């Protein structure tokens, strides 16, 4: 499983299966950057799960999300060493899906990510089924970042909707900019939750990324919340 490093108490985001395809989708157009940020956190967690393997990130030749390219310094701030990231830019959606499939079958990457427009004709049930089978064969996770438009039928094990959420200033840095915070919703699951600490009735969580301790933390829904004791211990 992909370990998010969350404390084993309360309602926590379920762990994700490694040999499976997962989809990450922005809740709305304005949440595009938030969804990419959450995907970067997933990359950090996968890099920790498989410490000796690089991350493969496939960007479309023509970026479909209008949020720019990945930024090395920003990834480093999140906890991902840019040197562990391999970027490729396939010429088309068909080439991107083929690249992801071949990379997954190798089993040589900690995870394989692909940015693709959810409306792309190439993104079919058959294409996602091939990615799911390739992830199972290689035993490594795959993540499709599909923007803010949901596509049709998919063989992905899970689909996550990501929206930005208010944050409080990071105590450890006394910065006006707080930790990255998201509301994530499990929109689709082909199987039961895998996380031991997961509330089986829960379908959405508000979480923030503690870059210092390299883990996701549960946070209250109230934007004016007081940091939890666990967060305060991170100082």
Core attributes:
single chain, 235 residues, alpha/beta, 9-stranded mixed sheet, 5 helices, 9 strands, 24% helix, 21% strand, disordered C terminus
Describe the structure.
With 235 residues, the chain is α/β, with parallel strands linked by helices. The chain contains five helices and nine strands. It has helices at residues 32-49, 72-78, 93-106, 125-138, 229-232; strands spanning 21-26, 55-58, 85-88, 111-115, 142-145, 158-164, 181-189, 204-210, 215-218. Strands 3-2-4-5-1-6-7-8-9 form a nine-stranded mixed β-sheet, sandwiched between helices. Helix 3 packs parallel to helix 4. The protein is globular and about 45 Å long. The two termini are 28 Å apart. The model is unreliable at 192-201 and 223-235 (pLDDT under 50).
Between the first and last Cα atoms, what is the distance in angstroms?
28 Å
| Overall pLDDT confidence | 79
Major sheet attributes: 9 strands, mixed
Count up the helices: 5
Helix and strand run: EHEHEHEHEEEEEH
Structural class assignment: alpha/beta
Name the beta content range.
Answer: 15-25%
Task: Give the helix/strand layout.
Layout (H helix, E strand, L loop, with lengths): L20 E6 L5 H18 L5 E4 L13 H7 L6 E4 L4 H14 L4 E5 L9 H14 L3 E4 L12 E7 L16 E9 L14 E7 L4 E4 L10 H4 L3
Parallel strand pairs: 1-5, 1-6, 2-3, 2-4, 4-5
Antiparallel strand pairs: 6-7, 7-8, 8-9
């Amino acid at each position: 499983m992909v370990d998010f490093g969350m404390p084993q108490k309360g309602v926590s985001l379920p762990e994700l299966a490694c040999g499976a395809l997962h989809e990450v989708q922005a809740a709305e157009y304005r949440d595009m950057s938030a969804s990419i940020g959450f995907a970067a956190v997933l990359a950090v967690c996968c890099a920790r799960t498989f410490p000796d393997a690089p991350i493969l990130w496939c960007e479309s030749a023509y970026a479909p999300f209008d949020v720019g390219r990945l930024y090395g310094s920003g990834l480093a701030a999140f906890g991902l060493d840019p040197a562990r990231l391999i970027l490729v830019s396939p010429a088309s959606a068909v080439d991107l899906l083929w690249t992801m499939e071949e990379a997954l079958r190798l089993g040589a990457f900690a995870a394989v990510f692909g940015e693709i427009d959810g409306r792309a004709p190439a993104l079919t049930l058959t294409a996602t089924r091939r990615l799911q089978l390739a992830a199972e064969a290689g035993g490594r996770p795959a993540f499709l970042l599909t923007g803010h438009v949901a596509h049709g039928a998919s063989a992905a094990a899970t689909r996550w909707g990501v929206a930005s959420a208010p944050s409080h200033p990071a105590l450890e840095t006394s910065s006006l900019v707080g930790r990255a915070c998201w509301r994530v919703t499990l929109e689709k699951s082909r199987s039961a939750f895998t996380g031991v600490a997961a509330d089986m009735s829960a379908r959405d969580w508000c979480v923030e990324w503690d870059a210092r301790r390299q883990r996701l933390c549960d946070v209250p829904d109230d934007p004016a919340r007081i940091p939890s004791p666990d967060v305060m211990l991170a100082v």
